[in-house]
Amino acid sequence: MNTDPRWITTPITADLLRGALDLERMEHGVLPHRLPARARAQCDDPQLAMVESQPSGVRLVFRTRATAVELDALPTKRLYVGAPPRPDGVYDLLVDGILAGQGSIPGGTVQVVDMSAGTTELRPGPPGTLRFPGLPGHEKTVEIWLPHNETTELVALRTDAPLAAAPGHGRRVWLHHGSSISHGSDAASPTAIWPVLAAARAGVELVNLGLGGSALLDPFTARAVRDTPADLISLKLGINVVNADLMRLRAFGPAVHGFLDTVREGHPTTPLLVVSPILCPMHEDTPGPTAMDLSAFGAGRLTFVATGDPAERASGKLTLNIVRDELSRIVAQRAAEDPHLHYLDGRALYGEADAAELPLPDGLHPDAATHRRIGERFAGLAFADGGAFAGSDGDRRAGGR
Question: Smallest Cα–Cα separation from 216: which of 234, 235, 240, 236?
Protein backbone atom coordinates (compact mmCIF):
# COMPACT_ATOMS: atom_id res chain seq x y z
CA MET A 1 0.00 0.00 0.00
CA ASN A 2 1.28 3.46 -0.90
CA THR A 3 1.77 5.64 2.21
CA ASP A 4 3.41 8.62 0.47
CA PRO A 5 1.78 11.72 2.08
CA ARG A 6 1.66 13.48 -1.29
CA TRP A 7 -1.09 11.06 -2.31
CA ILE A 8 -4.71 11.65 -1.37
CA THR A 9 -6.75 8.66 -0.19
CA THR A 10 -10.48 9.00 -0.83
CA PRO A 11 -12.97 6.70 0.95
CA ILE A 12 -14.76 4.40 -1.49
CA THR A 13 -18.44 5.16 -1.02
CA ALA A 14 -21.60 4.47 -2.99
CA ASP A 15 -21.53 7.88 -4.68
CA LEU A 16 -18.30 6.90 -6.47
CA LEU A 17 -19.74 3.63 -7.79
CA ARG A 18 -22.15 2.98 -10.63
CA GLY A 19 -23.76 -0.33 -11.56
CA ALA A 20 -23.83 -1.77 -8.01
CA LEU A 21 -27.06 -2.25 -6.05
CA ASP A 22 -25.38 -2.70 -2.66
CA LEU A 23 -22.05 -2.10 -0.94
CA GLU A 24 -20.99 -4.42 1.89
CA ARG A 25 -18.35 -3.58 4.49
CA MET A 26 -15.71 -6.34 4.56
CA GLU A 27 -12.49 -7.05 6.48
CA HIS A 28 -10.26 -5.09 4.10
CA GLY A 29 -12.65 -2.66 2.42
CA VAL A 30 -16.02 -2.70 0.65
CA LEU A 31 -17.52 -5.31 -1.66
CA PRO A 32 -19.87 -4.21 -4.47
CA HIS A 33 -22.91 -6.44 -4.95
CA ARG A 34 -25.23 -6.61 -7.93
CA LEU A 35 -28.14 -7.94 -5.88
CA PRO A 36 -29.38 -6.29 -2.68
CA ALA A 37 -28.85 -7.91 0.72
CA ARG A 38 -32.49 -9.01 1.02
CA ALA A 39 -32.25 -10.91 -2.27
CA ARG A 40 -28.97 -12.54 -1.26
CA ALA A 41 -30.52 -13.69 2.01
CA GLN A 42 -33.23 -15.61 0.15
CA CYS A 43 -30.92 -17.98 -1.72
CA ASP A 44 -27.81 -19.83 -0.54
CA ASP A 45 -26.78 -21.09 -3.99
CA PRO A 46 -22.96 -20.79 -4.22
CA GLN A 47 -23.17 -20.09 -7.96
CA LEU A 48 -25.45 -17.11 -7.42
CA ALA A 49 -23.31 -15.84 -4.52
CA MET A 50 -20.23 -15.95 -6.73
CA VAL A 51 -21.66 -14.30 -9.83
CA GLU A 52 -23.64 -11.51 -8.18
CA SER A 53 -20.46 -10.47 -6.32
CA GLN A 54 -18.48 -10.37 -9.58
CA PRO A 55 -18.80 -6.68 -10.54
CA SER A 56 -19.83 -6.95 -14.18
CA GLY A 57 -20.69 -3.44 -15.32
CA VAL A 58 -19.62 -1.90 -12.00
CA ARG A 59 -17.24 1.05 -12.21
CA LEU A 60 -15.71 3.79 -10.10
CA VAL A 61 -16.50 7.18 -11.67
CA PHE A 62 -15.06 10.51 -10.55
CA ARG A 63 -13.84 13.92 -11.69
CA THR A 64 -10.21 14.90 -11.05
CA ARG A 65 -7.07 16.62 -12.34
CA ALA A 66 -4.95 13.75 -11.07
CA THR A 67 -2.20 12.45 -13.34
CA ALA A 68 -1.91 9.15 -11.44
CA VAL A 69 -4.46 6.84 -9.84
CA GLU A 70 -3.92 3.83 -7.59
CA LEU A 71 -6.49 1.27 -6.50
CA ASP A 72 -5.89 -1.33 -3.80
CA ALA A 73 -8.20 -4.31 -4.18
CA LEU A 74 -8.53 -7.91 -3.07
CA PRO A 75 -9.62 -10.15 -5.96
CA THR A 76 -11.06 -13.64 -5.59
CA LYS A 77 -10.01 -15.90 -8.46
CA ARG A 78 -11.16 -19.40 -9.43
CA LEU A 79 -8.78 -22.27 -10.08
CA TYR A 80 -10.11 -25.54 -11.48
CA VAL A 81 -8.00 -28.55 -10.56
CA GLY A 82 -6.64 -30.12 -13.74
CA ALA A 83 -7.32 -27.08 -15.94
CA PRO A 84 -4.93 -24.28 -16.92
CA PRO A 85 -5.09 -21.23 -14.60
CA ARG A 86 -7.58 -18.61 -15.66
CA PRO A 87 -6.08 -15.25 -16.65
CA ASP A 88 -6.19 -12.45 -14.09
CA GLY A 89 -9.23 -10.22 -14.29
CA VAL A 90 -8.84 -7.02 -16.29
CA TYR A 91 -9.53 -3.46 -15.09
CA ASP A 92 -10.34 -0.92 -17.81
CA LEU A 93 -9.49 2.76 -17.30
CA LEU A 94 -11.52 5.28 -19.29
CA VAL A 95 -10.72 9.00 -19.49
CA ASP A 96 -13.64 11.10 -20.74
CA GLY A 97 -15.17 7.95 -22.19
CA ILE A 98 -12.06 6.74 -24.04
CA LEU A 99 -10.13 3.61 -23.07
CA ALA A 100 -6.81 4.89 -21.71
CA GLY A 101 -5.35 1.93 -19.87
CA GLN A 102 -5.77 -1.62 -18.65
CA GLY A 103 -4.30 -3.59 -15.80
CA SER A 104 -4.70 -6.57 -13.48
CA ILE A 105 -4.04 -7.43 -9.86
CA PRO A 106 -2.23 -10.76 -9.51
CA GLY A 107 -2.66 -13.02 -6.52
CA GLY A 108 -5.41 -12.46 -4.00
CA THR A 109 -7.78 -15.07 -2.63
CA VAL A 110 -8.10 -18.25 -4.68
CA GLN A 111 -11.17 -20.48 -4.82
CA VAL A 112 -9.94 -23.96 -5.76
CA VAL A 113 -12.62 -26.12 -7.42
CA ASP A 114 -12.10 -29.86 -7.82
CA MET A 115 -14.75 -30.98 -10.30
CA SER A 116 -13.98 -34.69 -9.92
CA ALA A 117 -14.19 -34.62 -6.13
CA GLY A 118 -16.99 -32.07 -5.96
CA THR A 119 -15.09 -29.94 -3.46
CA THR A 120 -14.21 -26.26 -3.10
CA GLU A 121 -11.40 -24.80 -1.03
CA LEU A 122 -10.83 -21.11 -0.32
CA ARG A 123 -7.19 -20.04 -0.01
CA PRO A 124 -6.96 -16.51 1.43
CA GLY A 125 -4.49 -14.05 -0.06
CA PRO A 126 -3.50 -10.39 0.33
CA PRO A 127 -4.78 -7.34 -1.56
CA GLY A 128 -2.76 -5.91 -4.44
CA THR A 129 -2.35 -2.54 -6.10
CA LEU A 130 -3.32 -1.36 -9.57
CA ARG A 131 -1.55 1.75 -10.91
CA PHE A 132 -2.51 4.08 -13.76
CA PRO A 133 0.19 6.80 -14.18
CA GLY A 134 0.63 9.38 -16.92
CA LEU A 135 -2.93 10.68 -17.12
CA PRO A 136 -3.59 14.13 -18.63
CA GLY A 137 -3.53 16.93 -16.05
CA HIS A 138 -6.76 18.70 -17.04
CA GLU A 139 -10.12 18.25 -15.32
CA LYS A 140 -11.61 15.00 -16.61
CA THR A 141 -13.96 12.13 -15.87
CA VAL A 142 -12.13 8.95 -14.88
CA GLU A 143 -13.83 5.56 -14.88
CA ILE A 144 -12.28 2.37 -13.53
CA TRP A 145 -14.35 -0.60 -14.73
CA LEU A 146 -13.87 -3.54 -12.39
CA PRO A 147 -13.23 -7.07 -13.69
CA HIS A 148 -16.47 -8.65 -14.81
CA ASN A 149 -15.35 -12.15 -13.77
CA GLU A 150 -13.55 -11.61 -10.43
CA THR A 151 -15.12 -10.85 -7.08
CA THR A 152 -13.40 -7.59 -6.11
CA GLU A 153 -13.16 -6.13 -2.61
CA LEU A 154 -12.21 -2.47 -2.94
CA VAL A 155 -9.66 -1.46 -0.30
CA ALA A 156 -8.33 2.04 -1.09
CA LEU A 157 -8.42 4.66 -3.85
CA ARG A 158 -5.53 7.13 -4.13
CA THR A 159 -4.81 10.02 -6.48
CA ASP A 160 -2.16 12.74 -6.72
CA ALA A 161 -4.88 15.42 -6.83
CA PRO A 162 -8.33 15.71 -5.21
CA LEU A 163 -11.28 13.89 -6.73
CA ALA A 164 -15.05 14.21 -6.48
CA ALA A 165 -17.95 12.04 -7.53
CA ALA A 166 -18.94 12.75 -11.11
CA PRO A 167 -22.26 14.61 -11.38
CA GLY A 168 -25.23 13.15 -13.14
CA HIS A 169 -25.22 13.55 -16.89
CA GLY A 170 -28.88 13.07 -17.69
CA ARG A 171 -28.41 9.93 -19.78
CA ARG A 172 -31.13 7.31 -19.72
CA VAL A 173 -30.52 4.35 -17.41
CA TRP A 174 -30.78 0.91 -19.03
CA LEU A 175 -31.17 -2.05 -16.65
CA HIS A 176 -30.41 -5.40 -18.26
CA HIS A 177 -30.86 -8.87 -16.75
CA GLY A 178 -29.57 -12.03 -18.38
CA SER A 179 -27.32 -15.07 -18.13
CA SER A 180 -23.56 -15.65 -18.33
CA ILE A 181 -23.42 -14.16 -21.83
CA SER A 182 -24.88 -10.91 -20.48
CA HIS A 183 -22.54 -11.26 -17.49
CA GLY A 184 -19.65 -11.23 -19.97
CA SER A 185 -18.42 -14.81 -20.10
CA ASP A 186 -15.29 -15.07 -22.32
CA ALA A 187 -15.24 -11.35 -23.16
CA ALA A 188 -11.80 -9.76 -23.28
CA SER A 189 -12.37 -7.06 -20.64
CA PRO A 190 -15.17 -5.40 -18.66
CA THR A 191 -15.91 -2.77 -21.32
CA ALA A 192 -15.91 -5.44 -24.05
CA ILE A 193 -18.94 -7.40 -22.83
CA TRP A 194 -21.91 -7.01 -25.12
CA PRO A 195 -24.23 -4.97 -22.82
CA VAL A 196 -21.45 -2.44 -22.15
CA LEU A 197 -20.70 -2.17 -25.87
CA ALA A 198 -24.40 -1.67 -26.64
CA ALA A 199 -24.76 0.93 -23.88
CA ALA A 200 -21.75 2.89 -25.14
CA ARG A 201 -23.06 2.80 -28.69
CA ALA A 202 -26.51 3.99 -27.57
CA GLY A 203 -25.26 6.60 -25.10
CA VAL A 204 -27.06 5.18 -22.05
CA GLU A 205 -26.03 4.37 -18.49
CA LEU A 206 -25.91 0.61 -17.83
CA VAL A 207 -26.92 -1.38 -14.78
CA ASN A 208 -25.95 -4.95 -15.63
CA LEU A 209 -27.75 -7.76 -13.82
CA GLY A 210 -26.31 -10.44 -16.07
CA LEU A 211 -25.82 -13.32 -13.63
CA GLY A 212 -23.85 -16.28 -14.94
CA GLY A 213 -25.87 -19.49 -14.65
CA SER A 214 -28.46 -17.65 -12.54
CA ALA A 215 -31.06 -16.06 -14.81
CA LEU A 216 -33.59 -18.49 -13.40
CA LEU A 217 -36.75 -16.37 -13.04
CA ASP A 218 -36.10 -16.07 -9.30
CA PRO A 219 -38.68 -13.84 -7.57
CA PHE A 220 -35.95 -12.00 -5.61
CA THR A 221 -34.27 -11.03 -8.88
CA ALA A 222 -37.58 -9.75 -10.21
CA ARG A 223 -37.96 -7.64 -7.06
CA ALA A 224 -34.43 -6.26 -7.52
CA VAL A 225 -35.35 -5.19 -11.05
CA ARG A 226 -38.64 -3.77 -9.79
CA ASP A 227 -36.93 -1.66 -7.14
CA THR A 228 -34.04 -0.33 -9.24
CA PRO A 229 -34.62 3.03 -10.96
CA ALA A 230 -34.41 2.65 -14.74
CA ASP A 231 -35.64 4.28 -17.93
CA LEU A 232 -35.30 1.11 -20.01
CA ILE A 233 -35.37 -2.57 -19.02
CA SER A 234 -34.43 -5.71 -20.92
CA LEU A 235 -34.75 -9.30 -19.73
CA LYS A 236 -32.84 -12.00 -21.60
CA LEU A 237 -34.52 -15.19 -20.46
CA GLY A 238 -34.46 -18.92 -21.09
CA ILE A 239 -30.99 -20.38 -21.55
CA ASN A 240 -30.25 -20.94 -17.86
CA VAL A 241 -33.62 -22.56 -17.28
CA VAL A 242 -32.67 -25.09 -19.97
CA ASN A 243 -29.07 -25.41 -18.71
CA ALA A 244 -30.25 -26.29 -15.23
CA ASP A 245 -33.23 -28.37 -16.37
CA LEU A 246 -34.99 -26.30 -13.74
CA MET A 247 -38.66 -26.52 -14.74
CA ARG A 248 -41.07 -27.96 -17.26
CA LEU A 249 -43.22 -26.01 -19.70
CA ARG A 250 -46.15 -25.99 -17.25
CA ALA A 251 -44.08 -24.04 -14.71
CA PHE A 252 -42.11 -21.90 -17.16
CA GLY A 253 -45.01 -19.88 -18.56
CA PRO A 254 -46.48 -18.84 -15.19
CA ALA A 255 -42.97 -18.09 -13.90
CA VAL A 256 -42.38 -15.68 -16.79
CA HIS A 257 -45.76 -14.03 -16.17
CA GLY A 258 -44.95 -13.70 -12.47
CA PHE A 259 -41.53 -12.18 -13.19
CA LEU A 260 -43.07 -9.63 -15.56
CA ASP A 261 -45.88 -8.86 -13.12
CA THR A 262 -43.33 -8.07 -10.40
CA VAL A 263 -41.23 -5.85 -12.66
CA ARG A 264 -44.35 -3.96 -13.73
CA GLU A 265 -45.23 -3.22 -10.08
CA GLY A 266 -42.30 -0.81 -10.00
CA HIS A 267 -42.05 0.12 -13.68
CA PRO A 268 -45.62 0.23 -15.02
CA THR A 269 -44.81 2.11 -18.25
CA THR A 270 -41.06 1.66 -18.69
CA PRO A 271 -40.14 0.19 -22.09
CA LEU A 272 -39.59 -3.50 -21.30
CA LEU A 273 -37.89 -5.76 -23.83
CA VAL A 274 -38.00 -9.55 -23.43
CA VAL A 275 -35.12 -11.19 -25.33
CA SER A 276 -35.07 -14.91 -26.04
CA PRO A 277 -31.84 -16.97 -26.19
CA ILE A 278 -29.28 -16.56 -28.94
CA LEU A 279 -28.61 -19.63 -31.07
CA CYS A 280 -26.97 -22.43 -29.10
CA PRO A 281 -26.91 -25.47 -31.40
CA MET A 282 -26.62 -28.12 -28.71
CA HIS A 283 -29.81 -26.97 -26.95
CA GLU A 284 -32.00 -25.90 -29.87
CA ASP A 285 -33.94 -29.17 -29.73
CA THR A 286 -32.19 -31.08 -26.95
CA PRO A 287 -33.18 -30.41 -23.34
CA GLY A 288 -30.79 -29.91 -20.46
CA PRO A 289 -29.19 -30.29 -18.13
CA THR A 290 -25.95 -28.89 -19.50
CA ALA A 291 -22.80 -30.61 -18.28
CA MET A 292 -19.10 -30.08 -18.56
CA ASP A 293 -17.46 -32.38 -21.09
CA LEU A 294 -15.14 -34.22 -18.72
CA SER A 295 -13.15 -35.86 -21.52
CA ALA A 296 -12.29 -32.44 -22.96
CA PHE A 297 -11.67 -31.08 -19.46
CA GLY A 298 -9.13 -33.84 -18.86
CA ALA A 299 -7.32 -32.64 -21.98
CA GLY A 300 -7.25 -29.07 -20.64
CA ARG A 301 -10.23 -27.77 -22.64
CA LEU A 302 -13.45 -26.40 -21.18
CA THR A 303 -16.48 -27.39 -23.26
CA PHE A 304 -20.10 -28.21 -22.52
CA VAL A 305 -22.59 -30.80 -23.72
CA ALA A 306 -26.37 -31.21 -23.57
CA THR A 307 -27.30 -34.34 -21.66
CA GLY A 308 -31.07 -34.41 -22.13
CA ASP A 309 -33.07 -36.59 -24.50
CA PRO A 310 -35.01 -34.86 -27.32
CA ALA A 311 -37.83 -37.37 -26.77
CA GLU A 312 -38.42 -35.79 -23.36
CA ARG A 313 -39.87 -32.70 -25.01
CA ALA A 314 -43.16 -34.59 -25.09
CA SER A 315 -43.24 -34.59 -21.27
CA GLY A 316 -42.66 -30.84 -21.10
CA LYS A 317 -38.88 -30.60 -20.89
CA LEU A 318 -37.61 -27.33 -22.28
CA THR A 319 -35.41 -26.62 -25.27
CA LEU A 320 -34.46 -23.26 -26.72
CA ASN A 321 -36.99 -23.52 -29.53
CA ILE A 322 -39.75 -24.29 -27.01
CA VAL A 323 -38.61 -21.40 -24.81
CA ARG A 324 -38.63 -18.95 -27.73
CA ASP A 325 -42.12 -19.99 -28.77
CA GLU A 326 -43.42 -19.57 -25.22
CA LEU A 327 -41.76 -16.18 -24.66
CA SER A 328 -43.09 -14.91 -27.99
CA ARG A 329 -46.58 -16.11 -27.09
CA ILE A 330 -46.52 -14.56 -23.61
CA VAL A 331 -45.29 -11.18 -24.83
CA ALA A 332 -47.87 -11.10 -27.62
CA GLN A 333 -50.63 -11.92 -25.12
CA ARG A 334 -49.55 -9.28 -22.61
CA ALA A 335 -48.74 -6.60 -25.20
CA ALA A 336 -52.44 -6.35 -26.01
CA GLU A 337 -52.78 -4.49 -22.68
CA ASP A 338 -49.17 -3.35 -22.27
CA PRO A 339 -48.04 -1.27 -25.26
CA HIS A 340 -44.58 -0.75 -23.72
CA LEU A 341 -43.76 -4.48 -23.71
CA HIS A 342 -41.68 -5.82 -26.61
CA TYR A 343 -40.05 -9.07 -27.77
CA LEU A 344 -36.77 -9.74 -29.54
CA ASP A 345 -35.79 -13.15 -30.89
CA GLY A 346 -32.23 -13.73 -29.70
CA ARG A 347 -31.30 -15.31 -33.02
CA ALA A 348 -31.43 -11.81 -34.50
CA LEU A 349 -28.37 -11.12 -32.33
CA TYR A 350 -26.59 -14.41 -33.09
CA GLY A 351 -28.11 -16.91 -35.49
CA GLU A 352 -27.18 -19.75 -37.81
CA ALA A 353 -25.00 -17.69 -40.16
CA ASP A 354 -23.14 -16.25 -37.18
CA ALA A 355 -22.59 -19.69 -35.69
CA ALA A 356 -21.04 -20.85 -38.95
CA GLU A 357 -18.68 -17.88 -38.99
CA LEU A 358 -18.07 -17.47 -35.24
CA PRO A 359 -18.90 -20.76 -33.50
CA LEU A 360 -19.24 -20.77 -29.73
CA PRO A 361 -15.79 -21.93 -28.56
CA ASP A 362 -17.05 -24.01 -25.64
CA GLY A 363 -20.42 -24.81 -27.17
CA LEU A 364 -22.18 -22.33 -24.90
CA HIS A 365 -20.46 -18.92 -24.67
CA PRO A 366 -19.40 -16.39 -27.32
CA ASP A 367 -15.85 -15.13 -27.75
CA ALA A 368 -14.72 -11.50 -27.77
CA ALA A 369 -15.55 -10.93 -31.45
CA THR A 370 -19.03 -12.33 -30.97
CA HIS A 371 -19.66 -10.13 -27.91
CA ARG A 372 -18.92 -7.14 -30.13
CA ARG A 373 -21.29 -8.37 -32.82
CA ILE A 374 -24.10 -9.01 -30.34
CA GLY A 375 -23.60 -5.60 -28.73
CA GLU A 376 -23.67 -3.77 -32.06
CA ARG A 377 -26.75 -5.67 -33.22
CA PHE A 378 -28.62 -5.10 -29.97
CA ALA A 379 -27.91 -1.37 -30.15
CA GLY A 380 -29.10 -1.31 -33.75
CA LEU A 381 -32.27 -3.27 -33.05
CA ALA A 382 -33.33 -1.90 -29.65
CA PHE A 383 -32.17 1.73 -29.70
CA ALA A 384 -32.57 2.68 -33.36
CA ASP A 385 -35.71 4.20 -34.84
CA GLY A 386 -38.56 1.75 -34.48
CA GLY A 387 -36.80 -0.21 -31.72
CA ALA A 388 -38.19 -0.88 -28.26
CA PHE A 389 -35.91 1.75 -26.70
CA ALA A 390 -36.06 4.43 -29.39
CA GLY A 391 -36.47 7.91 -27.90
CA SER A 392 -38.28 6.81 -24.75
CA ASP A 393 -37.76 8.31 -21.31
CA GLY A 394 -39.61 5.65 -19.32
CA ASP A 395 -40.69 6.26 -15.73
CA ARG A 396 -37.44 6.38 -13.74
CA ARG A 397 -37.90 7.16 -10.06
CA ALA A 398 -35.51 9.63 -8.43
CA GLY A 399 -32.83 8.56 -6.02
CA GLY A 400 -31.38 5.42 -7.60
CA ARG A 401 -28.11 4.64 -9.29
Answer: 240
